[in-house]
Amino acid sequence: MPFSVEFFPPKDEAAEARLWRAVRTFERLGPAFVSMTYGAGGSTRDRTVRITGQLAAQTTLLPVAHLTAVNHSIEELRALVGAYADQGITNILALRGDPPGNPLGEWTKHPDGVEYAEQLVRLIDDLGDFHVGVASFPEGHHRAIDLDHDTRTLVDKLRAGAEYSITQMFFDVDDYLRLRDRVARADPEQGNKPVIPGIMPITSLASVRRMTELSGSVIPPDVQERFAAAAGDGPEEDREAVRAVGIDFATEIAERLIAEGAPCLHFCSLNFAKATSEVLERLGVDMTSVLPVASAAR
C-alpha cells in the first residue's frame, strides 16, 4: 500500500536533528512522497524552502512543498515557486492557508495576492511544468457554507489543474468516503483524481483536541470516549495508554481505507517516526531495514 508522510519545519537545531532522524527512518521505508508544511502567513517560509530543498538534494525522497496564499503578493508567490524550481522541486501542495495567530479568525486577502486556492493552482500551473495538489476536507471546510459549497470549491481546484487532493485529518472513514462520492457526483472526471486520506497516530489526547479546535474538525463522541478512558481521570493524562489506543485506532482507520480503495495513506508524523512506523508495521510494511533507527521516539 503506498504511503506518504508530512513533516513541518523545525524551530531550532534540536528539533531539526529530530526531523532528520525521522527522515532517514522513513527514507528506508520508501514512501511515495513526503510533504513539508508552510506556517500560517508564511511564518516558516525560509525554513520550508531550505529544508524541502535539502530533502530533494540529500535524500532519495520525493518532496512536495506546501505553499499558502495568505499574506503573500502574487510577485512573492511567483518568487517562491521559482525558488522551489531552482532546487529541482516540481511538486507543490497549493493551499489558501490559515490567518496567522488564529487559524479560525477572519481571512484577509493580500492586496496584491490571490483570494482562493483555485487561483494559486492556476498561478503555479502558468509558471512551468509542476505537479500540483490541494487540500480537501472530509467534514467540510469550516468556512464553507455547507458540504455542497465545500464540494464545489474542491472541484474548482481540481478543474484549475490540481492532480490530487490530500485530506485534513479525520476520525470517521465514512466522512472520507462521502467526500469521495460527492466529488464523483459533482464531476465524474475530477472524481477520478486521487483523494489521499490524512491520518495522524494520536499520542496525546490534549494535543489532538487542540489541533481539532484549530482546524474546525470534530472528534466523534465514541472516539472521544475511547481516548478519554485511556487518558484516565488523573491531573495528567496516561500518555502511554493514550498512545496505545492511538496506534490501534490509526491502524483500524488505515485498514478500512485500504479495503475501500484509498490510493495512498498520508501520515502526519509531527516529525517523529516511531508511531507511524508501528502503524505501518501492523499494515504489513517490511520494517527489517529500519529497526536500528526506528526508535526516533514517539
TrEMBL record:
Coiled coil: none annotated. Pathway: One-carbon metabolism; tetrahydrofolate interconversion; Amino-acid biosynthesis; L-methionine biosynthesis via de novo pathway. Belongs to the methylenetetrahydrofolate reductase family. It comes from the Bacteria. The keyword Flavoprotein applies. Its EC number is 1.5.1.54. Pfam families: MTHFR (PF02219). The lineage of its organism: Bacteria, Bacillati, Actinomycetota, Actinomycetes, Mycobacteriales. The keyword NAD applies. This is Methylenetetrahydrofolate reductase. Its cofactor is FAD. GO terms for molecular function: FAD binding; methylenetetrahydrofolate reductase (NADH) activity. Keywords: Amino-acid biosynthesis, FAD, Flavoprotein, Methionine biosynthesis, NAD, Oxidoreductase. InterPro entries: FAD-linked_oxidoreductase-like (IPR029041), Mehydrof_redctse-like (IPR003171), MTHF_reductase_bac (IPR004620). One of its GO terms (biological process) is tetrahydrofolate interconversion. The gene is metF. It comes from Gordonia insulae. One of its GO terms (cellular component) is cytosol. It catalyses: (6S)-5-methyl-5,6,7,8-tetrahydrofolate + NAD(+) = (6R)-5,10-methylene-5,6,7,8-tetrahydrofolate + NADH + H(+).
